[in-house]
Amino acid sequence: MISKSQQNKRLTALATEIQGNLESVFEKNQLHADVMLKSVDLKISMQDVQFIFSNGEDPVAFSQHCNSIVRTCDEHLISREAYRQLAAINPKLIREYIIEKHRHKITNSMKLRIPITLFSVECNQSHNDDGCQTNGEDDDLLRLEFTDSQNRNGAFRTIVSLLHTLVPFLVSCDPPVLKNGDTLKLRLSGDGRQVGRSQSHVLMTMCVLNEGEAVLTPNKQYT
Questions:
Q1: CA distance linking residue 200 with residue 38, whole number of Å
Q2: Which of 50, 51, 118, 123 could bond 91 through an S-S bridge, CB–CB 3.0 to 4.6 Å?
Q3: How many domains in the chain?
C-alpha cells in the first residue's frame, strides 16, 4: 500500500544490503577467486524485480548498449513513458532514468561538437511600405542583425562544425566516400511553412553530393 517511491527506496536498501554482505558470504563458502554478483531476480507480489550489480562491468560496452537503446527509441518514436512501461514489464531492460541520463549526455556532447547558436532577425533604419526598417541603400534588401538580446527568433549551426564531424566519417567508412584530393560538393536547400498569421518557419538543410544516391534519404539531410 506504500507509494512507488517508497517501494523503490526499500528495494534499493535491500540491494545495497545484499551487495554489502557478499564478501562475508564468499569467504564463508571459501570462494577466494575473482567472483562478481551480476544480478538477483526476485518475485514480489506477482511482480518480477531484478537487481543488476554493475561493478566490474565494461563501461564502454555499457555505454554502447545505452547508445543503441537511445537510437532505437529516437528512430521508432518510443517515448519516455512507453519505454518506462516496457522496462516495468521486462526488468532486464535498463531503467528509463539511466537511458534518459545517457540521452542528456549525448545531447551535451553534440552541443559541444556542433553547437546551436540563437540569433535575432531585425529590420533596421528606414521604413519600407510594410513598416519594416531597411538599410536605406536598397529597399529590397533587409539588414539582418545578430544580437544577444532575449528576443531571439532563429537558430543555426555552422557548416564548418558539421563538416568537422562528417568528413572524418566519410573518409573512414567502407567504402570511403571521400579520398585525399577529392572536391567536397555541398548542396544547400530550404523549406518554409506559414505558422500563424504573421510568422513563418524556414528550415535549411545541407547534403554532401559526394555520397551519391544516399543523399535522397532523409538521414543524409543535415539541418
A1: 54
A2: 50
A3: 3
Q: What is the 3-state secondary structure (H, E, C) of 73-93?
A: HHHCCCCHHHHHHHHHHCCCC
Kindly report the number of other CB atoms within 10 A of residue 78's CB atom: 14
Task: Express each pLDDT in 169-203 by its tens digit.
Answer: 888 888 888 888 889 899 998 888 887 777 778 88
Say if residue 61 is in the same domain as residue 133. Answer: no
DSSP state letter for 221 = -
Q: Which of 104, 124, 156 corresponds to the end of one domain?
A: 156
Tens of pLDDT, residues 30-40: 877 777 777 78
**Structural domain that includes position 34:** 22-112
State the DSSP code for 62. Answer: H
Q: Give the three cell numbers for residue 23.
A: 564478501
Burial class (CB in 10 A: 0-12, 13-18, 19+), 83: buried
Grid cell 545495497 in the structure block, residue: 16
Residue with cell 572524418: 168
Asked if 66 and 105 count as a contact pair (C-beta separation under 8 A), the reply is: no
Same-domain check for residues 30 and 99: yes
DSSP 130-158: TS-EE-SS-TTSPPP----SS---EEE--
- Which has the closest alpha carbon to 143: 126, 155, 159, 118? 126
Distance from C-alpha of 135 to C-alpha of 18, rounded to nearest angstrom: 73
Residue 56 reports pLDDT greater than 80: no
